[in-house]
Amino acid sequence: MNKTSVPSPDSIDRQWFLVDAENQTLGRLATEVASVLRGKTKPNFTPHLDTGDFVIVVNAEKIKVTGKKSDQKLYRRHSGRPGGMKVETFKALQSRIPERIVEKAIKGMLPHTRLGRQLFTKLKVYKGSDHPHSAQEPKILSLNSESVTK
Questions:
Q1: What is the mean pLDDT of residues 5-11?
Q2: Whole-structure pTM over 0.85, yes or no?
Q3: Which tens digit of pLDDT belongs to each residue from 102-119?
Q4: Which DSSP string corresponds to 7-39?
């Protein structure tokens, strides 16, 4: 009879991956990164454990969306005060805080539980091509999606 094995926390091998978001489609990049963060690319994936890897996303300001989403997609946040709803388009948020767009897309694809919050801490998003994690020697993660040409 076969037994299901559950990996112990010290047996999980965590790696660092680097993703270049330049000319990548937002949703396609987010699904690949969320899968790596979750650990679904590993043979010892366990749904209730954090078996994923660290992911560094660079060039967040150069991410693309298809269609008219750059003008029509809205990002909402609320201060918690009456009348405190702030609405911003993709284009405006991309010029102001491009990291937030990528973070929000990936966070929405992770579990909405304590595990998802723990997984989200392993995501590092940066504007530009520089990042402070060179000591971890991240591997380049090539995405299956093709780049958007315009």
A1: 88
A2: yes
A3: 999 999 999 999 999 999
A4: --GGG----EEEEE-TT-BHHHHHHHHHHHHHT
Look up the domain containing 51 and give its range.
15-64+95-140
Look up the CATH number of the domain holding residue 55.
3.90.1180.10
Four-residue CA torsion sign, 94, 95, 96, 99 = positive
97 token code pair: 């805080």
Q: Is residue 123 part of a domain?
A: yes
Q: Which stretches does DSSP call E strand in the chain?
A: 16-20, 54-58, 74-78, 85-89, 123-125, 139-140
Say which residues have a Cβ less than 8 Å from residue 86's Cβ, sequence separation at least 6.
Answer: 76, 77, 78, 79
C-alpha to C-alpha distance for 150 and 142, rounded to whole angstroms: 21
Domain contains 44:
yes
Number of domains in the chain: 1
Joined together, the tokens standing for residue 66 give 């298809």
Residue 52 lies in a domain: yes
In a domain, 69, yes or no: no
